[in-house]
């Protein structure tokens, strides 16, 4: 897909991977709706996108609310006359031992899996209405490909995103809509601050942590590559971008 002139919605766009992707898309000529609960951060993303010459607007959005998600996609269709791209990126971490300290495990599932399913459903509906096809990218995680004893619910949610996405590969034949997933290794985002400054600093010095821009580049590749549907891309500090068969 040629990105220039297309309309996109990016959830979790106020910081980290979402911000980097929104700016990258705007820089390639897309018109972007930045959806997030963080109004200050979201408006800052809009400013950064504008500096790249792109057109961007902010929409406050709680991804656990179908109405909020629907309004973000409807805004793209109304403001820009179309919806071509959805990057369902909003998510939270969830490290816990589960049996000993389950934490708010339902919230992890609601945001990291259920909201992705809901956003994909709504994006497909809007894209079908327009009849121009589209590209959807869902953020999973490298942890979605491997067991993670310290974060089993998070691992389960992200694994769900992987198989949900793979199961929608048929949509390209039916509606011209491609749904793919990206699975990053550890990324230098606000979520990574949980590691502590000392460990985070060492990872930065050693190159053992990815930048949000690394992941944004993968998102752009998945959008532009018309041959990919139901694909899973992993991004690691050692191997870069690779497609995974799981």
CATH architecture type: 3-Layer(aba) Sandwich
CATH superfamily: NAD(P)-binding Rossmann-like Domain
**Top-tier CATH class:** Alpha Beta
- In which range does the helix fraction lie? 40-55%
Please give the radius of gyration in angstroms.
17 Å
The total count of helices amounts to 8
In the CATH hierarchy, the third-tier topology is known as Rossmann fold
How widely separated are the two ends?
Answer: 25 Å
- Secondary-structure-based class equals alpha/beta
The mean pLDDT is 91
Quaternary structure classification = single chain
Low-confidence stretches: none
In the sheet with the most strands, the strands line up as: 3-2-1-4-5-6-7-8
Supply the number of structural domains: 1
For the largest beta-sheet, the strand count, sense and barrel status come to:
8 strands, mixed
Give me the strand/helix succession: EHEHEHEHEHHEHHEE
Strand fraction: 15-25%
The outline comes out as globular
Topology, number of strands: 8
């Amino acid at each position: 897909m040629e990105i220039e002139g297309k309309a996109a919605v990016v959830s979790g766009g106020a910081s980290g991977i979402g911000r980097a992707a929104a700016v990258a898309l705007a820089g390639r000529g897309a018109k972007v709706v930045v959806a997030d609960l963080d109004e200050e951060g979201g408006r800052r993303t809009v400013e950064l996108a504008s500096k790249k010459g792109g057109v961007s607007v902010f929409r406050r959005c709680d991804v656990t609310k179908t109405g909020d998600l629907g309004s973000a996609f409807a805004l793209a269709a109304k403001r820009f006359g179309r919806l071509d791209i959805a990057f369902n990126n909003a998510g939270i971490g969830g490290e816990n031992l589960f049996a000993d300290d389950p934490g708010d495990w339902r919230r992890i599932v609601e945001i990291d899996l259920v909201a992705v399913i809901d956003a994909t459903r709504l994006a497909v509906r809007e894209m079908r209405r327009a009849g121009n096809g589209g590209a959807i990218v869902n953020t999973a995680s490298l942890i979605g490909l491997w067991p993670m004893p310290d974060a089993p619910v998070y691992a389960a949610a992200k694994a769900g995103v992987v198989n949900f996405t793979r199961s929608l590969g048929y949509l390209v034949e039916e509606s011209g809509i491609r749904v793919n997933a990206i699975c990053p290794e550890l990324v230098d985002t606000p979520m990574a601050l949980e590691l502590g400054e000392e460990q985070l600093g060492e990872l930065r010095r050693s190159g053992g942590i990815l930048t949000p821009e690394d992941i944004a580049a993968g998102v752009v590749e998945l959008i532009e590559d018309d041959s990919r549907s139901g694909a899973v891309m992993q991004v690691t500090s050692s191997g870069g971008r690779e497609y995974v068969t799981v």
